[in-house]
């Protein structure tokens, strides 16, 4: 007789096809080869470990899943109930036997519980009770139990949570679940009525939540959890007194936490105000913004010096977010941000993004004052001061130096441009490429070729990160202003200087192709030099060399009639393969061959 798994598989195989999938023949454990072997081993139950049971159970689950997939794939419905039911019944049996021997394993209980839920076994309820009895010390048990009862009976779920809180007084999840359940339950009329005071459901619910909060104060020291509960209560206006209680706790015991003040300020801004406020003002945007700003300032006056910098950063970042929204109260937001930036700069070290925004906002202010002919006030005063402060604080910031240089360019003072540029490259070194380009653009408009040539000559001597950008720019400028001869002369010098620059060769080749009187030998020299310098690391330099013979074969054969283009390409390929073989880089070699084969298939000479 075939083992059960094999017989099941045969039933699910397509007509006239018998195959044995590895999933039915392999085992998760080498202690057995199929489920029949596990059944035959009942006489040696004591030898089976917990992991044996878990492995066998997992195997049966995989078998069940695979049968379902095959039924869907081949649209087979034969013996559907009997086959799946036997496997499910067997899994249930394995769980029951395992739990009798290993009743102290919570993960086994939890796995069985999930299995019963999935297949609608009534056993799930009794498993919850067993888990509570055996594992009440584990907070996860109460979470599972609460989740189970919530779908069936809110009051029963609350009772379970209350029992769990008696044991786990510091379990944040249980408190959070209890408060949420009380909020869900407030619309019901099954709470005991206060016949003397005739309290409403809202009042009863608020008192219950207040009791939870006071217990949390005693047992949990975590401001993040209090902020989470505060966020949970925000939509429920009837809990305003409880929310105020939490805020008082936060301000009294966690006044030195920057995230507390940030959260409280954002609450005020969103219309959830602390204390008594005129209802008519709560919806006014400017009023809410002012309340939020006042809360940030209150925090800055109370927080310690050590934490003040962090709160300033949160405050400024939030003001910058508001500035980006740009819907209402734009003038108020802008003035507040500028004022805050100025005040913060005198107390803490700002970050790059703050200086950038500060400079740009001030520049916009200066532009708006042109009508009143007061722009010089900003150019000579406030804006220059901000630049000075920002660079002093962050001397290696590329963006701040670039803004400072741009400011000098806008003033059109060559001496100041040169001074700022020299200071910038001194600090930025290999990161200074953007400033070289800005300075060159400025002098292109304001200075003679001699000045520009000197800047380029200095630039190509800089670190590779800068020279790799300026070398191609330089020969392109030379070709445009002084002609091809000067460009070739400088190229021949620069191309031999280390570190080599790959883009220099590409730019020079492009310049040669744009000449009216194209020189085949000069073009070939550039491509050949690129292969010599970068052929061990870049496949494309070889492909470019080969494409040159295809694209300019007529021009080449006009000058050298005996040239065999195909032979030249084959020669380049041999040289490329030999060069790459020396590097032992199989991936590059494979890429090279693929590209040459593609080039050969597309060639039409």
Automatic annotation (TrEMBL):
Limits of the U3 small nucleolar RNA-associated protein 6 homolog C-terminal domain = 294-554
Q: Which domain of life is it from?
A: Eukaryota
Q: Which example biological process does GO assign this protein? A: maturation of SSU-rRNA from tricistronic rRNA transcript (SSU-rRNA, 5.8S rRNA, LSU-rRNA)
> Know the name of this protein?
U3 small nucleolar RNA-associated protein 6 homolog C-terminal domain-containing protein
User: InterPro entries per the record?
Assistant: TPR-like_helical_dom_sf, Utp6, UTP6_C
Q: Which GO terms describe its cellular component?
A: Pwp2p-containing subcomplex of 90S preribosome; small-subunit processome
Quote one Gene Ontology molecular function term. Answer: snoRNA binding
């Amino acid at each position: 007789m075939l083992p059960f798994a094999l017989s099941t598989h045969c039933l699910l195989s397509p007509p006239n096809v018998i195959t044995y999938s590895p999933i039915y023949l392999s085992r998760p454990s080498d202690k057995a080869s199929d489920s029949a072997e596990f059944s035959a081993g009942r006489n040696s139950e004591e030898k089976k470990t917990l992991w044996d049971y878990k492995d066998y159970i997992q195997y049966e689950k995989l078998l069940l899943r695979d049968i379902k997939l095959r039924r869907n794939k081949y649209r087979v419905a034969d013996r559907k109930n009997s086959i799946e039911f036997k496997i499910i019944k067997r899994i249930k049996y394995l769980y029951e036997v395992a739990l009798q021997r290993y009743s102290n394993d919570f993960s086994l209980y939890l796995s069985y519980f999930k299995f019963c839920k999935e297949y609608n076994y009534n056993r799930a309820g009794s498993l919850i009770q067993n888990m509570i009895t055996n594992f009440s010390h584990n907070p996860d048990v109460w979470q599972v139990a609460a989740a189970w009862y919530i779908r069936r009976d809110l009051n029963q779920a609350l009772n379970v949570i209350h029992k769990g809180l008696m044991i786990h007084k510091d379990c944040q999840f249980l408190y959070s679940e209890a408060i949420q359940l009380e909020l869900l339950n407030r619309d019901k009329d099954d709470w005991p009525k206060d016949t003397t005071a005739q309290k409403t459901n809202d009042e009863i619910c608020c008192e219950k939540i207040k009791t939870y909060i006071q217990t949390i104060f005693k047992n949990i020291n975590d401001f993040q959890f209090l902020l989470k509960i505060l966020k949970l209560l925000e939509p429920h206006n009837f809990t305003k007194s409880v929310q105020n209680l939490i805020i008082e706790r936060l301000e009294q015991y966690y006044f030195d936490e920057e995230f507390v003040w940030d959260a409280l300020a954002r609450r005020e801004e969103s219309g959830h105000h602390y204390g008594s406020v005129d209802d008519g003002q709560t919806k006014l945007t400017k009023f809410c913004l002012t309340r939020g700003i006042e809360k940030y300032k209150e925090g800055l006056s109370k927080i310690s010096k050590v934490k003040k910098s962090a709160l300033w950063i949160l405050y400024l970042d939030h003001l910058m977010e508001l500035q980006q929204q740009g819907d209402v109260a734009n003038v108020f937001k802008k003035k507040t941000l500028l004022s805050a930036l100025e005040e913060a700069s005198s107390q803490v070290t700002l970050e790059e993004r703050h200086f950038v925004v500060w400079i740009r906002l001030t520049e916009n202010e200066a532009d708006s004052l042109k009508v009143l002919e007061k722009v010089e006030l900003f150019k000579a005063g406030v804006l220059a001061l901000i630049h000075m402060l920002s660079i002093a604080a962050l001397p290696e910031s590329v963006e701040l130096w670039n803004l400072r240089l741009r400011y000098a360019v806008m003033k059109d003072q060559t001496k100041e441009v040169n001074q700022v540029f020299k200071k910038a490259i001194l600090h930025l070194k290999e990161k200074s490429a953007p400033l070289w380009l800005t300075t060159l653009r400025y002098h292109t408009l304001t200075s003679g070729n001699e000045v520009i040539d000197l800047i380029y000559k200095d630039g190509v001597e800089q670190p590779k990160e800068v020279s790799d950008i300026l070398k191609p720019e330089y020969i392109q400028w030379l070709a445009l202003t002084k002609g091809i001869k000067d460009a070739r002369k400088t190229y021949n010098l620069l191309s031999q200087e280390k570190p080599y620059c790959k883009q220099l060769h590409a730019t020079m080749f492009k310049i040669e192709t744009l000449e009216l009187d194209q020189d085949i030998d000069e073009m070939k020299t550039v491509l050949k030099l690129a292969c010599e310098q970068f052929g061990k690391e870049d496949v494309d330099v070889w492909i470019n060399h080969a494409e040159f013979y295809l694209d300019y074969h007529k021009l080449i054969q006009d000058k050298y009639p005996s040239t065999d283009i195909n032979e030249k390409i084959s020669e380049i390929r041999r040289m490329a393969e030999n060069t790459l073989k020396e590097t032992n880089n199989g991936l590059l070699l494979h890429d090279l061959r693929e590209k040459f084969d593609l080039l050969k298939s597309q060639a039409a000479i």
